[in-house]
Structures are given as structure tokens and as C-alpha cells.
Amino acid sequence: MRTRIKELRDRFHLTQEDLAKKVGVRRETIVLIEKGDYNCSIMLAHALAKELKTTIDKLFIWED
Amino acid sequence: MEKQLNLFIRVFVLALIIAAGSLFFTFPGKSIWLLASVAIAMAVALVALVAASERVTSMKTGLPLEDELSRKATWKAGYYAFVTGLWLAIGIMAANLIGGEIFKLPDIDFRYAFEAMLVVPGLTFVVLAMLFKKKGNVD
Known about the structure:
The structure holds two protein chains of two kinds. Chain A is mainly alpha-helical. Chain A has helices at residues 5-11, 16-23, 27-35, 42-51, 56-59; strands at 2-3, 60-61. A two-stranded antiparallel ribbon of chain A has the order 1-2. In chain A, helix 2 (16-23) crosses helix 3. Chain B is built from four helices and no strands. In chain B, 84% of the residues lie in helices and 0% in strands. Chain B has helices at 2-26, 30-61, 68-101, 110-135. At the A-B interface, helix 2 and helix 3 of A face helix 3 and helix 4 of B.
């Protein structure tokens, strides 16, 4: 699974730490989600999508 | 990557159990246990220091100390530690039974068994919790 978190973060000039604070997680969690190493919960995915002004299906890209 | 991590976990847990078992049979005297206890206490202190510094950094930056990933990592490490403890208990019982009945070895002192039953799962928990938090491997 790929994510567009970094791309959208850059668009809104947010650091990993800023985004972590906004959605209430540790910075390391954002790092792992961005790298595709951690599959976050639907609640966190929703919070991330909301903060990055997008939808979950546009934020996370599933590759077969 | 996941396969390598799983392999590492299995090897690590097995190494801990073998190391604890080897200590029982190789050095039954108290001196090695004092040395081992000091080494374990130092390892625990080091881990606590690292954890404390991480917490202080998080508190300074206003980030939460815990989140869903750290909670899942803690639960998964707890599960592995529990299973390690069970296998260690079975191993100690089997070693007493086989060693005593077949090889006529003296029984393992309950104090050493008790210490191992606390230390081995404890170390397993601490190391794996840190590893899972770092790697994000919690599924």
C-alpha cells in the first residue's frame, strides 16, 4: 500500500510533527504510515484524510 | 522484511530460553547468578533510560506519549512474552523430569526457575515492544 501523505503534507506546508499533533499520534507513527510499514486504523485514516483535506481512498493507494 | 523480523523474533526468544537453560546446568553456583542479575539490572536500567528520554522529548514537543501503534505493539509484545513464559515453564518442568529420571541430574532450584520465569518474559516483552514500535509490525 502506498500513501499520498507526504505529497499532501508538502502541499499544506506541514511537517510530520505538525500532522502528528493534529491527529493525536506520535511522530514515529506518521513516519511508519508514510513508509507504508504500518496499516493504521480506519479512525486514524479518517483523521488524516480530514486534516489533509482529502478522502481515505485518495490518501491510501492499494496496489495489487 | 516481515519474514526477517519474524525469524529474528523466533531466534531471539529461542536464544533467551537456551541461554537461561544453559545457565542452570553450566553454572549452578550463586556467583554467576549474581553476575547475571547485575547484567540484567543494567540492561533494564539502560532500557528505562532510553524510554524516559523518549518520553521527555515527546512531552517537550507536545506529542502524545501513547497512540494506537504503541498500544498494539505493547499488546503484541505482551502476547509473545506470555508464550515465552509458558514455553520456559514447560522447558523447566521437562528438564527436571528428563534430567532427574534419565540422567540423574539434581533438580533445578526453584529460586533460579522463578528468577528465569520473571526475567526471560520480561526481557522478551521490553525488547519486542521497542522493536514493534520501531518497525510498525503489529498486525
